[in-house]
Structures are given as C-alpha cells and as structure tokens.
Amino acid sequence: MSRFFLLLLLTCFPAIRTLFAQSSVIDRKIEALLKKMTLDEKIGQLNQYNGDWEATGPVTKDVDDKLEAIRQGKVGSVLNIMGVAHTRAFQEAAVQSRLKIPLLFGQDVIHGYSVTFPIPLAEAASWDLPAIERSARIAATEAAAGGVHWTFAPMVDIARDPRWGRIMEGAGEDPYLGACIARARVKGFQGNGLGNLDAVMACAKHFTAYGAAIGGRDYNSVDMSLRTLWEIYLPPFKAALDAGAATFMNSFNDLNGVPATGNSYLMRNILKGQWHFSGFVVSDWGSVGEMIPHGYVADKKEAARVALTAGCDMDMESRSYIANLPRLVQEGKVPVSLIDDAVRRILRKKFELGLFEDPFRFSDPAREKAVLNKKEHVAAARDMAERSIVLLKNEGHLLPLSGELRSIALIGPLVRSKKDMKGFWSLDVGPLNDVVSLYEGMQQQAGNTILSYAKGCDITDTSRAGFAEALSKAREADVIIMAVGERADMTGEAKSKADIHLPGVQEELIKAVLSTGRPVVVLLMAGRPMIFNWTAEHAPAVLYTWWLGNQAGNAIADVLYGKYNPSGKLPVSFPREIGQIPLYYDHFNTGRPAKDEKDLNYVSAYTDLLNTPRYAFGYGLSYTDFKYSNLQLDKSSLHVNGSISVSFDLQNTGKYAGEEIVQLYLRDIVAQPLRPVKELKDFTKLRLNPGEIKKVSFTIDRSKLAFYNDKLEYITQPGRFQLMIGSASDDIRLEATFQLLQ
Ligand code: GLC
What's the CA-to-centroid distance between 572 and ligand 1, angstroms? Predict the structure, then answer.
C-alpha cells in the first residue's frame, strides 16, 4: 500500500487510525519485551504443553513438573485446560516467571463448550450461515467465560471420503460452501475482535489437504496436483484468513512427499508470503516430532530446525523446540531472527487478548457461572439442530406425525442415548443430563400418544436377542420411529473405517420391523455418511440427524411433529457403495460420460452399481414443495470485469411453510485445463409461506468464473457458460447459458 494512500486512509477513517495506532503501540511493546528476553525465554514462548486433562494425542512423558517449567518461562501455551479455577492456577505460575509473560490457553471447542451444538458437518447441512456463526459465537462466549483464549477451530478441511472419520468435523466436499462456512465460524469465534471478553482466537486447521488422505485413512499421505490444492483445498483456508483467523494449525499428513509441518511452500510461500498472514502457526499434536516417523528428518533436532524454518511458530506437545532450538541457534543452524519472528507473532496475540494488562481477565468465576448454559444458548442449540436435520425420504407424506396417534413405538439402540448425541469432539463441561435424548424429546411432545420403547439391538453387537421385544412393540404401535447409527466414538479423529455400512445388525432390525407392515420412520444418527441401501429403498421415511448435540431429542421431535419443517441439504455426497469413493459432484465430464445412471456402453461407469450417489450433494427434502420459474438474465454475455444479474421466482406450492436452499451452479463448457460439470457458485436460503412467491437474485461476475490454470494463474477464459439453478446438485430446475467475452 503506497504511503500516500495509507496517510489518506488514516486521515479519513478514524477507526482505521485507531486500529493502526493500537497496532503500533503493541508493536512497540513487543519490541521492548523482546529486547529483555533471553534466548531460552523466547524459545519458551514457542513451546506448548498439554495440560493434565484428557489428552488428544499420544502424550510425551518427559516433563513431570509442568508448573515449574511454566514458572521458569519455558512454556508459552497450554492446551486441554478448561475452567476458570484450573486456568487461573496455571496462569499464576506463568506470572511468577521472570518476565511474567502470560500463557495462552487453547482448547478444541469444535461445536460448543458447555452447551453442545450439532457436529460441524451437521451444521453445514443447514447451509444457514447466520445460524452457524451464532453457534460459534455462543461456543466462544462460553469458552471465554471458562478461561479459554483460543479454540482449535474451525476445521476447514475439504473432505470427499466418508471412510475418513474427521469428515464429521468440517463442512463437507465443496470449496464454495466450505469457504462460506469457514468465514462464518471464524467471525463467530472472534466476534467483535480479540480483546473482547467473549472472543477467542480462531484456528484454521489443518493446513493442509488433510482430508484427502489416501484411502480415507487418517494421517495418511496426500498426493495431488497443485491445481487441485488451489482449486479445492485452499479456498476455505483463504476465507478463514480473510475473515481474520488469528492462528492456523498445520496438518499431520505429508503433501506430495513433504510433511505439512515442515512444508515451507505451504507456510512461508502461500500462508505468510502470498497471503500475508500475520498470526501464528501451531503444529498439530506432536507433528513436529512426527517428521521422524515420516522419514523426513533423522531426529528432533533436525525436526525443530525444519519446522521452524518452514514457518511453524509453535510446537504442540512434541518438545522438539524447547529441547533443541537453543543448540541450533548456538550452532548457527537457526537464525535468531526466525525465532524472533515467531515470538513476535505469539506475543502480538497475547497483547491483543489483553493478557499483559490482566492475565486473569478470562478467569472470572462469576462470569463463568453466569454465562455457561444460558437458556438462550440452549434455545439456539435447539434451533441449530432443527436446521441441521436432512429429510431424505417421506413417502406418502408419512411425516409430519399427527398429534392424534394412539401409540408410537421408539425402537433402536440410540433412542435413549445422551452421550452419543453429543458426538465426537464434544467437551464434558456441561452435565450429560442436560442432553435431551430422542426418547425424552418425544415424551415432551407426544401429548396423549402412548410411547413404547425397545432397544432391539446394540450398535455394533450382532446379537438379535432383542428383536422379539422390538417386534412385539412395533406390532402394537400406529407408527414406529427407529433411531440407529453410530456411537459418538465411531467417527472422528483416528476413526477411519473401511466399512461404512450401518453397523452391526441394525439394518436387519429395520427389515424385521418393516416386515410388520406398520409405518416406520428411520432416523440415522452418525458423524459420517453411512451406507444403508436397503433402508433407503424400503423405509417410507428417512431422516439424517447426524449427532445434534444437547438439544437432539427436542429438535428431532420438533421436526417429526412438523413444528419445524426440515430444510437441511447434504454438504457431502452419500455413496451407494464404498467402491465409489472418492465421490463428489463437481467432477470432470471425462471423454466417455455415462448418459444416465444405467449406461454401461463403453462409458465411465461401474458394471455392478448405478452411476450415481445414493444421495447427491445439496439434496434434502421438505414437507412442502417449491416451484422454480421465470429465470431471467439481464444480458446474455459479459466482459471479464462486467456482471450479469440473474433472477427467478420461487413459490411454495405445498401446504406447509418452509425454507428452501436454492443453489446456483455454473459450468465453463470449454476450458483448458478442464472445468467440472458443475460448481456451486452461490446459494441462498429463504422461507416461504404456502402459496408465497419470492424473487431470488444472484450476480454473476469474475469471482464466479475464474479458475487456476496449470501455471497456477487465476484466470478466466472467454467462452460459453451453463448456468443451473437447483434444489440439489442432481435436481436442476432452471437452466440458461451466457457468453464470457474477452
Ligand atoms: C489433535 C487434532 C487437532 C487438535 C489437537 C489438539 O490431534 O488433530 O485437530 O486441535 O490435536 O487437541
């Protein structure tokens, strides 16, 4: 930015002037502190220890007195420490150090702190950016009240392989939706800015391409073209950075043979170079030291040199930095300037959080008591859960349920579960009893309807001993609601699966219950897309309810009784079989595209399976219907700096008020290199009453047309584009073409 323009900005905009002034005050404080710090104290800031709570990785045992290490200024941050009393104790040790530099407390606040919200993949199914931002805002408010300064979230890894357990933690397969959600989550976590007592530092993770692990096997290698990296995996990270993410976390995987933790292309060239990232990068748990088993370095000394040189500022839990950087500096293998840069980045965040003014400002027991579990947090969790539910099938309009039913049988291993509703990466802060099970949710709303219950079977166990009782309850009921799926520990980190079919004998139980001839609603509760073909084809009503958090039971009952008309759409493709994986909607056409899902005439297809997903990206039904009509483009061509206004009418033609997520897809029909058959480029969610019509508008401009060529230049190419407006990626309702001119 030219000096003139900067001076102009500072003169004209007082807010920018204030920010600039604050930043330069902090700069001066950092430099003054840095001058006082010994090399050991500087390296201490780059060292992060796990607290004495539940570890989230293999714990290194070589430090027995962490508090003493903190008092000696050897620790800059501690993770897995929660609660005002606990964090205060550790901070008290820090302020006994020579320079009294406060600690940063980090925690995986992934989908709620005390009030647990739906897992991130479920929230992504809502496509509801304000609701997603609010969810992160509440999580941050509670976490900050609990003494946490920094959440290791949002996880923004694109995931196209449901064998990978961490698919539950992100926003699915699409770069555009993923970028929108990354932005919403960072804004939610950081609120009105660091320094506010309800704001925590966000952490965009895992940098990068962690979700593309070969075979869907966690921590496995990733091998992809740089074009795919820039087109698919980087956009959500760039969105997080543009939204102001304070920190990044690198990933466990190697990318094209270079571990992300030691990958200077990722951290120096892209993140801190091209993207001008001014925050700091923390390694993932032990990943600095894990470059040894990767085979990238011989020992922790080399690991420390490689990681710091590549741009990794803080070493989580591997102790490579604290043990080796002093010697590396003395040997001239690591310049002090690199350490100073890392220390500056970390100290800046501590200043911005106000921790030097008051190290205990986040340790207020009265605020902790007042903020956690507020009823408006609970209400927001219920609303978010409702919006996350995806209606996959509703034959004969079996749903919503009538309040006049004589009896409902609740059958399945997840009917009464509380712990599983919290899902993976939930925290044990709020009491488990605050979680509303499906059974409890139905009890709240069933009125005079008699509820019966039978577990029927376990989740992974193969015993069918419970079938008889389940069938007898089913025969007596007007409607059966089945709750099947996964335990909360079955999908998440280090939970990759080679078989993602509905586990155990649960689908056999569904078959048995359906054989009674009674109407059956199947609820699938899981962290990942599962395979359940028989159920999908034979059950009259199917809903994917993921793991919905504390308000699961109430939200599901709200949807079953029609108090909330389901509006969710899948953020990830659901395969028919594992053999289809990786499966995603924005694929290239190939030279031999199948004409339809059964075409086998020398085309790109499987001879033993239909050529389509079980459920497509963007798919989800409603209790009502929507009609798309009257597509208008204000011009049929545009120049690269021009735009086209697109509009169409959306009408609710059913009898229930409801929300529709309308999706805009584009296809660059002829391009070099190739472009996908369609790419999500915009969407909006709107609510319509029965009969109501609303005009929906989108704008097409360069930002929706550009792509990376094989030189990684972000370009557009003139030519014809196909425009598609749909209710799902495989349910296109309106189409048009337009021309991009030079
Ligand atoms: C874990 C995860 C990472 C998490 C960190 C701290 O291994 O990979 O997402 O933030 O360690 O718990």
Answer: 23
Q: How far is CA 197 from the centre of its chain?
A: 24
Please, which pLDDT band fits residue 394 given cuts at 50, 70 and 90?
very high
Q: Which CATH number belongs to the domain containing residue 494 in this structure?
A: 3.40.50.1700
Contact 284 CB / ligand 1 (< 6 Å) = yes
**pLDDT of 5 above 80:** no
The answer to whether residues 429 and 113 touch, using CB atoms and an 8 Å cutoff, is yes
206 part of a folded domain:
no
Residue 157 is assigned to a structural domain of this protein: no
User: CB burial class (10 A; 0-12, 13-18, 19+) of residue 601?
Assistant: exposed
pLDDT mean over 385-404: 98
- Is the distance from the beta carbon of residue 108 to the nearest atom of ligand 1 less than 6 Å? yes
Using the mean position of ligand 1's atoms as its centre, give its distance from the Cα of residue 174 in Å: 23
247 lines ligand 1 (CB under 6 A): no
- When pLDDT is cut at 50, 70 and 90, the band that residue 59 belongs to is low
pLDDT, position 60? 61
For residues 563 and 634, state if they share a domain. no
> Given 3-state DSSP classes, what are the helix, strand and coil percentages for the chain, each rounded to the nearest 5?
35, 20, 45
Residue 415's domain comprises 374-580
Distance 11 CA to ligand 1 centre (A): 44
Which atom from ligand 1 is nearest to the alpha carbon of 203? 10
What is the value of pTM for the model shown? 0.97
Residue 272 lies in a domain: no
Substitution site in 493, 495, 496 for ligand 1 pocket (most atoms within 8 Å of beta carbon) = 493
**Which mutation among 152, 203, 283 tests ligand 1's pocket best, with the greatest number of atoms within 8 A of CB?**
152
**Best mutation site among 48, 108, 148, 164 for ligand 1 pocket (most ligand atoms within 8 Å of CB):** 108
Output the pLDDT for position 249: 98
Strand-pair partners of 250 = 207
Output the six-digit token pair for 352.
Answer: 């911005």
The pLDDT confidence band at residue 53, using thresholds 50, 70 and 90, is low
What is the mean predicted confidence (pLDDT) over 225-250?
98
- Is the CB of 169 within 6 Å of ligand 1? no
Which of 520, 546, 580 corresponds to the end of one domain?
Answer: 580
Q: What is the mean pLDDT of residues 521-542?
A: 98
Q: Is the CB of 430 under 6 A from ligand 1?
A: no
pLDDT at 203: 99
What's the pLDDT tens digit per position in 6-35?
Answer: 666 656 666 666 666 777 999 999 999 999
Tokens linked to 142: 């509670």
Other C-beta atoms lying within 10 Å of the C-beta of residue 193: 11
Indicate if 496 and 632 belong to the same structural domain.
no
Distance 107 CA to ligand 1 centre (A): 9
**Both 523 and 416 in a single domain?**
yes
Cα separation, 104 vs 108, in Å, equals 13
Q: Are 283 and 249 in contact (CB under 8 A)?
A: yes
Amino acid occupying residue 616: A
Nearest CA, atom 12, ligand 1: 56
Is residue 655 in a domain?
A: yes
How sure is the predictor about 486, in pLDDT bands with cuts at 50, 70 and 90? very high
Cα gap 247→153, rounded to integer Å = 9
For the Cβ of 707 lying below 6 angstroms from any atom of ligand 1, the answer is no
Bridge pairing between strands 719-728 and 731-740: antiparallel
| Percent of the chain topping pLDDT 90 | 94
493 lines ligand 1 (CB under 6 A): yes
Give the pLDDT confidence score for residue 3 in this predicted structure: 67
Together in a domain, 562 and 634? no
* Average of per-residue pLDDT values in the chain: 96
Cβ–ligand 1 distance for 424 under 6 Å, the answer no
